[in-house]
Design a protein that fits this description.
By secondary structure, the protein is an alpha+beta fold. It is built from 12 helices and 4 strands; from the N terminus they run H-H-H-H-H-H-H-H-H-H-E-H-E-E-H-E.
Length: 318
Amino acid sequence: TAKWDVQMAGMNFQTRSRMERRTENWRADMNDNTHMSWSARTIGAILLGNILYALTLKLFLLPANLASGGATGIALAVHYLTGLSVSGILLAVNVGMLILGFFLLGKAFVVTTLLSTFVMPAALEVLDRVFGDFVLTQDLLLCTLFAGLGVGISLGIVIRTGASTGGMDIPPLILFKYFRIPVSVSLYAFDVTILLVQAPLHQAENILYSILFVMISSITLDKMLMIGTTQTEVKIISNKSSELREAILKQLDRGVTLLDAEGGYLHDKTQVIFSVISNRELFKLEKIVHGIDPDSFMVITRVSEVKGRGFSMDKQAL
């Protein structure tokens, strides 16, 4: 029990960021009464993510006899106890949670969950029949590594579309809506409970590998959610702020904000140049700044996401 608690505490940070993003998507749907834009690209991404998830379960998670959290963990536990089909159990859990979400969270949430509820169990059943007893590798470490990578990538693909994977994501959102219990806290509690239920069903070695699997999948998912969204924030303090502003606007085609500032020692008035650029533009900006004012003071910060004109919106034509 102590080992499971240590492992779950370690992944709580990654889980929180993942669930906060899901909570934001859901709250936006509830407040704005909007629905997902079911474009071909969105549907394709959801299908790809769920099929990849099912493929990961079939080729790596199930052969290695690893434990898992969420609806998949419930399906695995029932499967090991009864021998029933994992896909069938997973479908029953997902449908049950979908119905619960429909009555307690509303139609908007169901729309974002509908595809994943049915596609993943169906894909797992098809893959089970296609591959049969085929085993790609019996190496427990390889199965653990690729299971973690596959689950993290597949969930990341689905969540980046704004959709939900359903299942055990729904109870934490219900608790948040009616009792204001933080989603990350209730998700943590549910996952720990599901993992602990599976612990007696596995050998000690498999439990340790399961801890590694959950950690890898959580880290991979977090990285997937950040792909393409990180940018670089730059603050420049220089006596040649006008020249630097002109160069950034013309050579980088990036917006600039000038902030009035005062030196803390000499109390001399100056301006701080504030700008946000893409990560690839940082080297070019440094070259520009050093060419104009080698003595300038530059602060560079990596930001997780930037929204607005020039980033999440097209640049405005002059």
